[in-house]
Design brief:
The structure is a homodimer. Chain A is of the alpha+beta class. Chain A folds into two domains: about 90 residues, Arc Repressor Mutant, subunit A (Orthogonal Bundle), CATH 1.10.10.10; about 120 residues, no CATH class. Chain A has a three-stranded antiparallel beta sheet with strand order 1-3-2. About 5% of the residues of chain A have low confidence. At the A-B interface, α1, α2 and α5 of A face α1, α2 and α5 of B. Chain B binds a DNA duplex (30 and 30 nucleotides) through α4.
Chain lengths: ~230, ~230
DNA sequence: GGCATGCTTCGGCATGGACCGAAGCATGGC
DNA sequence: GCCATGCTTCGGTCCATGCCGAAGCATGCC
């Protein structure tokens, strides 16, 4: 009975066109700002704010503040699965996975750059994805941990995992500006970045945060992470 | 965009407490009458009627008229999957699969009985389920077909499949009164019923539609269909 | 400090839709 | 034929909620 009410409540949240629009825009796992979501839904910021608050309260969205922006993303994979199941019934079929482009205009910078002391852009996100997919790190919103498999992998790369008590701060997710997804920051991100420079896999573009992946880097990244940057 | 609207519309249908209640009651695949659904939702018949019309129009439910009753059930497995996914997010966990009991009060009659010229009750539904699960028949609302594998199976049982042009009428689903699910009717259902009597698997209770499964029947049904009637 | 930007809260309006009472069709049983 | 039952359609009420304008906090840039 209460199960009925909970189901209805959740479904009703998805049942509003504006909210459905926003959720749909988040289907690819990226995080978008409240303003962007208001824009895609075609409503004003204040209306969107109310919707986002309700979606977060119900556990459909997770929010992360970064400066004066608030980034929203789907709270769990279960939410994405639910939305997909609804679309299936609605006759829309599987999601179209449309390519949207926002963020830094410079293509090279979007591809790979430094963010403070670690790698960001497509390269940074790809490294984080690869390590997470292989169970080498486990990322959470508030922090992350390096698994035993990850320690072994890092050692093989020539990176000494911080054995001290600062394990938690060692692996920290950071929201990527252009990709709107997490990449690795913290001590781990810094160490990976440093090592990539040492190995000659990437090199800096003068007077810029942009970095370029070298020929050796393409091979090395492919071998180490299974990464293929188009 | 239109995909968004369709998703919102579908979700909104589930988003009403009364409708969610009705859909939930249908989660186990049974078919219930409009009156029963109104009752479980705690609303009047006329209100339920409106809800059911909308759910059917949207393709969430399928309707089947039998006498002056109208039986409603989930239109496709995709709808059940969607509801389950929503419940997952709503925190209700997987559906409880509650056992509800309506229909004939007589336990033996609920277990097995004849329906016109074929078997019904738990036995009839179990036979239909078993044959469908094994790909021996393919059941649709308006009719069904016996597959080549089904022909072979029936031959082994000593039943000659009707080789004439009346194949379609040969295999016909019939909505079970107590189980609220389909069992096999038509020529196939009649033949199966006759053969079960011939083999001594079931015998009639005098002056009643109720039939009893014999000891030989328990063994035979288990071997032929993999059926285990608790 | 002052200003701009991003987001939230508050108040009031308006539309949508859930609900029921009453009446209208079907179907089945007598 | 009649009546009972199950369901639907129609009409009207009422509440929930989505929406925006205006104002109020935060944060970042100068």
């Amino acid at each position: 009975m209460s199960s009925n009410a909970a189901m209805a409540e959740t479904a009703a949240l998805v049942g509003d066109p504006a909210r459905a629009c926003m959720l749909n825009a988040l289907m690819d796992g990226r995080a978008l700002t409240a303003g962007e979501l208001a824009s895609v839904a075609g409503i004003t910021a204040q209306t969107a704010s109310g919707h986002l608050a309700r979606l977060s309260a119900a556990g459909l969205l997770a929010m992360e503040r970064q400066g004066r922006h608030r980034y929203h993303r789907l709270a769990t994979p279960a939410v994405a699965r639910m939305l997909e199941a609804i679309m299936m019934v609605a006759g829309g079929g599987p999601p179209p996975a449309r390519p949207r482009r926002i963020g830094p205009a410079d293509a090279a910078m979007r591809n790979a750059r430094t963010c403070y002391d670690h790698l960001a852009g497509r390269l940074g996100v790809a490294i984080a994805d690869a390590m997470a997919a292989r169970g080498q790190v486990e990322l959470a919103t508030d922090g992350g941990v390096v698994t035993p498999a990850g320690v072994e992998f890092l050692t093989g790369l020539g990176i000494a995992p911080d054995a001290g008590g600062s394990r938690r701060a060692f692996c920290k997710p950071c929201l990527d500006w252009s990709e709107r997804r997490h990449h690795l920051a913290g001590g781990l991100g810094a160490a990976l970045c440093t090592r990539c420079f040492e190995l000659g896999w990437v090199k800096r573009v003068p007077a810029s945060r942009t970095v370029l992946v070298t020929r050796a880097g393409e091979a090395g990244l492919r071998q180490a992470f299974g990464i293929e940057l188009g």
